UniProtKB/TrEMBL annotation:
Entry keyword annotation includes tRNA processing: no
InterPro entries hit by this protein: C-type_lectin-like (IPR001304), C-type_lectin-like/link_sf (IPR016186), C-type_lectin/snaclec_domain (IPR050111), CTDL_fold (IPR016187)
Protein name: Aggrecan core protein
Gene3D superfamilies to which the protein is assigned, alphabetical: Mannose-Binding Protein A, subunit A
Amino acid sequence: MASPQNKFTVAAFLLALIAVDATRAFSCDHSWLKSAESKSCVRYFPEAKPWHQARSFCQANGGDLVKIVSSRMNNRLYRFLTNRYQQIYIGLHDVTTEGKFKWLDETQEASYTDWGENSPDNYQSGEDCTVMGYYTRKSWNDVPCWHGNAFFLREVSWYEAFK
């Protein structure tokens, strides 16, 4: 039978291993952008899809549409915009409640946003999904979810999977 002291030593060792693993630097495949801010890897997909299809694609590949958590992360993602008319879906929406934009993994309104001038505006009462784009002066705009746009897939991180 193990002594109380041995049990404590084993438990302390296991906790130390878990702590080291949780803070360990993560890496992304070369075709993915590492986002230290969200502790995840992000990949750009140029194929135009409606928002719900883009999200289904992301989920089928172990992730979801990107959640942008800071201006630094936002600015890094803008490098994927190649022309002034391009729009890229992100994981922000107000599908559930009009005017209350939330990230896909949250129940509260988004704390970080980068809306363009006069956005969101729900133009013609049908804009529930969000894009980032050049035509909006490198900012976000609400658009109809049925538009076909490129998108960012955010791989669910180890940290998120077990928090």
